[in-house]
Structures are given as structure tokens and as C-alpha cells.
Amino acid sequence: MVRAFVLLAPGGPAGHGPCRVLYARTFGTPPETALGGPRQRLRRKEQLLVVARQVASQCQLLQSSLGRPSSPQLPQLPDEPVSLQDAPGGLFQMPPGDPFPERVTVVWLSVLALAFALVCEPQENLSLAEITLRRLAPRLLLSLRLLGPGADVLLRPDAADGLLDRLLPHGQMLFLNERFLQAMDRELGIKASR
């Protein structure tokens, strides 16, 4: 099961722009957080910020190892579909208590100046998690117009929620076929990448 989805702007190299969580969503609630008071919501935000910082660190490390400078600026993209088959990504594990009570695995994908991450339970199918992330990212980019002029993901959480509800219902990853994805894209008015 997926515990959380995080969309972030990793920022630039150390000191050149902070890591910002643009959108986050948690799935399911651990038994100790069932009541969900203000302190629990703050704790979940802090947990996701720790994950975002770790993903940002991984993105910057990968960019520097490839000899590419990372830029905190969101570049402009045409309204064309984006293929992310070769987009850099990775995974890492976080030990119990740092920041979640149990061990979790984070699968991430870097797209230009953005990063997408799924926080998964350790027994989750990591290949399916990566495929899900690679199918989710271009649809989020197109539906939210993240990289278009004047776009702001904070103003359009309903589009992200709609996509997550279809591709990750209640945090469960699905084996999706192309026909289902094409029907979903038509329903949402998204031009899918080929």
C-alpha cells in the first residue's frame, strides 16, 4: 500500500532555494493517528517534509553525479505531452522512526525542476510503484499545467486528487492497461503522451 504521495520543488544546490512541498496526500491512517487532531496533522506534514528533503537531496546528488546543474526555476514546456520513460529516478528506504513509526520505501522521479515521490510500505511491489509514478507524473504535469506560465499547483489540488483517486484508489496500486488509461485521459480531457 502507498502511504503518501508528494509533489515537490527540490530547489537548487545547497543554499540556492529551499525544498518546497507543492502538494501532498496521505493514504490510510495508522492506528495511533485515527483521531487526527491538529497535532497529528502537523506531525504528518513534518513527516512529509522530511521525505521531501530526502528526495530533494537524492535529486541533487543524481544531478551533480550526471554533471548537470540543478535549477530551482520551473522551465516552460510546450503543451505537448511529455514522455518520462528516461526521466531520472530512484528509491531509498527510511528506517523506523525516521520519520514514520515503521520502515518505508520511497520511490521518486525527477522531472526538470520537480520531483514526484510515493512513500510505500516495505513489502510493496517497487516495480509497480515506479510504473505508477511514471504514469501519474505526465498526467499531473498536463492536467495541472505545472510548467505553464502562471501555473500554481497550490491552486489546483482538485485535479491532483482526481488523478490520485483513479490511479491510486485508497493508496492501492493497480495494474493498469492502456485502454483504461486512454479512457481516463479522455474523461479528464488530458492528451496522453505516446
List keywords for this structure.
5 strands; alpha+beta; 194 residues; 36% helix; globular
Describe this structure in words.
The protein is of the alpha+beta class and 194 residues long. Helix content is 36%, strand content 19%. The protein contains 4 helices and 5 strands. It has a 5-stranded antiparallel sheet with strand order 2-1-5-4-3, with helices on both faces. Helix 2 packs antiparallel against helix 3. The protein is globular. Residues 74-78 and 147-152 have low confidence and may be disordered.
Which helices and strands appear, and what pairs or packs with what?
Blueprint: E1 2-9, E2 20-26, H1 38-65, E3 89-94, E4 104-111, E5 114-120, H2 126-144, H3 157-167, H4 178-188
Antiparallel strand pairs: 1-2, 1-5, 3-4, 4-5
Short description:
The protein is an alpha+beta fold and 194 residues long.
Number of helices: 4
* Uncertain stretches of 5 or more adjacent residues: 74-78, 147-152
Helix content: 25-40%
The number of strands is: 5
Kindly report the spatial arrangement of strands forming the biggest sheet. 2-1-5-4-3
Main beta-sheet annotation = 5 strands, antiparallel
Q: Give the overall shape, derived from the CA principal axes.
A: globular
N-to-C CA distance: 28 Å
- Residue share in β-strands: 15-25%
Helix and strand element order: EEHEEEHHH
Helix and strand composition category: alpha+beta
Q: What is the rounded Rg?
A: 16 Å
Please tell me the overall pLDDT: 77
